[in-house]
Amino acid sequence: MNETTRGPAVADKAATTDEPYLELRGVTVRHGERTVVSGIDLTLRPGEFLALLGPSGCGKSSLLQVLAGLARVAGGSLRLDGADATEGLGQRVRVGYVFQDHRLLPWRTVGQNIEIAMKAAGVPKAEWDERIDRFLSMLRVAEHRTAWPMRLSGGQRQRVSIARALAVDPDIVLMDEPFSGLDEVTARAMRQELTRLHETTAVPTLFVTHSIREALFLADRVVILSQGPARVLKTLDVPLVRPRRHEDSALTRLADEVVADVLREWEPTEGPAS
Ligand SMILES: Nc1ncnc2c1ncn2[C@@H]1O[C@H](COP(=O)(O)OP(=O)(O)OP(=O)(O)O)[C@@H](O)[C@H]1O
């Protein structure tokens, strides 16, 4: 990664402004002839945690892949920090990507997995050692640095994959349902950790989920998507104070309201009329 094409440093990512850091205009994604994402408009502000909430199969992962530059847009445009980024954000800035499954290489140790990501992102080799220690410690898995991924629990592997995403000093983090494979107790602990990390790093984050409660627990704003092909139904400013608690009655009430709101739109047999 060319340093001149990098985005702002971490401290700047927390800047409080309503100017969008990332802007999607009419983004459409197709797999072959099939449209899976249809004309999405959304913005991500500096330092913001934005959840993309939609039913299973609506096209959330496909949209995230386009943002990362792992697939191409079929229509519309992306702008990042005011400049065109339609080819994918990875062309302009460092992207930390956390997949639904951990995607750790089984024949490399935890530390080596993180090294590979930093090498690919152009992080200077002199920083690798300190960064591996720092981010594994932040995610509370430092003692597993020399372990093989297969020796870790699912939750520990996902912690490592988040450490790997943050270790590349990302300008933006994209997360694709990273906790959906974990038991609820572990997932709750991980959501708490993620909130803490985001408060520390303030890296703008797009978090994809089909869980209404998860979106409301984590995000500053939630973009609610329709059944596929995904389009934006509405954007919600989450009115819950921080720190949030999973068992908060206000969170439960809000989740129930959102469920009632999207029920007809998400119901496969009674989907949207248009
Ligand atoms: N590479 C691909 N080629 C063809 N079709 C695909 C491909 N990837 C996904 N699809 C299809 O596109 C649609 C959207 O899939 P996508 O994985 O983006 O949805 P999602 O909202 O992330 O789903 P989930 O919440 O279940 O992970 C699905 O019908 C899926 O079968």
TrEMBL record:
Residues 22-252 form the ABC transporter domain. GO terms for molecular function: ATP binding. It holds the Pfam family ABC_tran. The keyword ATP-binding applies. InterPro entries: AAA+_ATPase, ABC_transporter-like_ATP-bd, ABC_transporter-like_CS, ABC_transporter_ATP-bind, P-loop_NTPase. Keywords: ATP-binding, Nucleotide-binding, Transport. Transmembrane segments: none annotated. The keyword Zinc-finger does not apply. PROSITE patterns: ABC_TRANSPORTER_1, ABC_TRANSPORTER_2. This is ABC transporter ATP-binding protein.
